[in-house]
Amino acid sequence: MAEMLLGLSANRRIIAGLLVNLLSSICIVFINKWIYVHYGFPNMTLTLVHFIITYLGLYTCQKMDIFAPKSLPIRKIVWLALSFCGFVAFTNLSLQSNSIGTYQLAKAMTTPVIILIQTTYYKKTFSTKIKLTLVPITLGVILNSYYDVRFNLQGTVFATLGVLVTSLYQVWVGAKQHELQVNSMQLLYYQAPLSSGFLLCVVPLFEPVTGEGGIFGPWSTAALVTVLFSGVVAFLVNLSIYWIIGNTSAVTYNMFGHFKFCITLVGGYVLFHDPLSLNQALGILCTLAGILSYTHIKLMEQEEGKSRLAQRP
Fold this sequence. Notes:
Layout: H1 2-39, H2 43-63, H3 78-97, H4 100-107, H5 110-121, H6 128-146, H7 153-180, H8 184-206, H9 221-247, H10 250-271, H11 278-311
């Protein structure tokens, strides 16, 4: 009876963690889009707010013994912190300049770019099956972007830069976690304040400090509350990702990600009335098919690798 109650309690915690991640991951896209559309809040300043709140949240977590911080040399994570700034800022600029559908599908190009970086610079090899799944992903993104009525050069540039910097960041995060023997929260605990410092120096050069639309401009209470709420949600996204992978598996998180992908796309068209043509819908389905195929083949290869290791004498 006691074991049954413990199992039920564990399942409830996992379901609660998945729900937090689902709601926060979807909300952060819609809240940020709302901030850009209805308030015109400066992009880099919003990114800075997210970084500061993330650090404060992580500081609270380590004080509550949710994780133990590890001392890291600053010079080892400088480039990682800079790429963190770029990845969040360019991703937000892509969201600001594009429809949610194009923004979401552009993010799917991160997988092909990561594979290209790892193949070119890290001499990592991938199976032919994995490489073939990149064809429908890329084709779907191109098809959607080409037929998006809101397609524009500025949005394309931001989306491209966002994909490139995000891909670099993800590759470097994996390498640094292995090199420094830290988990994602320990690494983010040092990244967030360092990235905040970099942005603090740069923001006044690109965004007005005072006046209409400035950092210290005459913002309404509703705008400021929404911005702070956005920062809290961004922190919950990071925290719930770590919690889900730690308490379930990367497999669960990846499969759950496809569900969020679909809901975010649908929500964009419902809430912001983004037009959707038949060709765009075909592009979305093509990309989704490629993502599902990639995940399935990748997981199969991982299981085969584990089986071979287990069979070794």
